Amino acid sequence: MTLKMNKTEWELIVKNFRQLGGIADNVELRKGQFGRGVFKSNPERKSLIMTPENVLIERNNVVLNEGNIVIKFDPAMTREAKEFAEYYYNLFSWGNGGNRDSQSFLKQITSLPTSVKNALERHRFIDKRILNYRDNTETVLERFIDERAFQFKGKSVLVPMLELVNHSNYSPPFRVTKNGLETPPGEAECQEILHKYSGKNSAMSLWRSYGFTAKSIVSFSVPFEITINEASILFRCFGQQEATTNENNFYQINPQIVSIDSFPVGCQSPTLPLAQLISILSTSRINLDTTKSLMIFIQTLNINAREQILNDLQIQKDTHTSVLSKALKYEIQLIRSSLEATKKF
Q1: Does residue 86 contact residue 102 with C-beta atoms inside 8 Å?
Q2: Top-confidence residue, 111 or 72
Q3: Is 206 within a domain?
Q4: Mind listing the pLDDT tens digit for each residue in 241-288?
Q5: Better-scored residue on pLDDT, 130 or 210
Q6: Does residue 212 fall inside a structural domain?
């Protein structure tokens, strides 16, 4: 049964968090349009959550004991920080429905039609290890951590309190400081505190990573290999479903092969995908008409791949399938908009 949070429990969490050096100014938990979230207690004042480094938990130090989260010994954590983290996760996070949400997502994935699972893996919309989910608490814990992990100083960590903040593609990202991780400066008119989980997410990668989706700024291509006869070049994309951290996203193995990890095919700035392709092929002496035709082919390929999955999902009526369908539709809409821009360029 999901634990209901009362005011006294929240006040105790905040008090203990502050004693450990955390900041939780002008914040309270409420239900909003994104479900449970963090809101300003006083709409007229600024708010801030800052989780200090001494409260961050390395993911490998999180284990289960009789169904409860336990933090393994870590010389970097005091006894007080360890006790706080265990209380927090077992009352507010893992023990407040987070474990069941993670388990439900994994079970829904394994119940998908075989054709859908094969397509999701083939198009790199989901990791093979998730498709091979085994129903045990260790796997559920791994998924739970995946959904909540932040990066700090090169480590994957859990971040009490800050993890309660919901995602918005149109909010600034959380901030990494020398002291820890904190919420971005909030807008005066926004009552719920929001941040962008990652600037690299598409609608499909949000679904894969967190089990929800939202309209996103960009959609990325499925894998492809295309021979450009005019220049005797093999152009291939590996289908990474989020922006690469490498500024030089593409590399040329030899003059006849151009490879790219991720490639935008739809964008709220509709002409960006074509501009990106022009840039990638700029040294290959390929004329604009050929580049446009190639872009149209790639965008059509991506629309068709998503529409085929949607067609195969028609027999599914559960909540997680609905979220997956919504993510696919968001991406199709975005790609179609860019396709029209490509045709008019």
Answers
A1: no
A2: 72
A3: no
A4: 987 755 556 666 677 899 999 999 999 999 999 999 999 988 888 899
A5: 210
A6: no
Q: Is the domain of 11 the same as that of 159?
A: yes
203: alpha, beta or left? (left if phi > 0; alpha if psi -120 to 50):
alpha
Same domain, yes or no, for 192 and 247? no
Which pLDDT belongs to residue 271?
97
In one letter, which amino acid is 226?
Answer: I
Same domain for 239 and 117: no
Dig out the tokens for 78 from the structure: 């005091």
Closest to 113 measured CA to CA, from 271, 315, 303 = 315
44 plus 109 within the same structural domain: yes
Residue type, 305: A
Domain boundaries, position 327: 218-344
Distances (CA, A) of 48 to 16, 45, 98, 103, 215: 16, 10, 24, 31, 26
Are 118 and 148 within one domain? yes
Look at residue 106 and tell me if it is in a domain.
yes
Using the structure block, give the residue that is written with the tokens 């999180």.
62
Tell me if 297 is assigned to some domain. yes
Q: Is the pLDDT of residue 3 over 60?
A: no
Q: How many domains does the chain have?
A: 2
pTM of the model: 0.87
Indicate the length of the chain as a whole number. 345
> In this structure, are residues 134 and 126 in contact, taking their beta carbons and an 8 Å threshold?
no
- Residues 215 and 127: their CA atoms lie apart, in Å, by 22
Question: Final residue of a domain: which of 197, 230, 263?
Answer: 197
Tell me if 71 sits within 8 A of 82, measured CB to CB.
yes
**Could you give the CA distance from residue 185 to residue 187 in angstroms, rounded to a whole number?**
7
pLDDT range class, residue 325, cuts 50, 70, 90 = very high
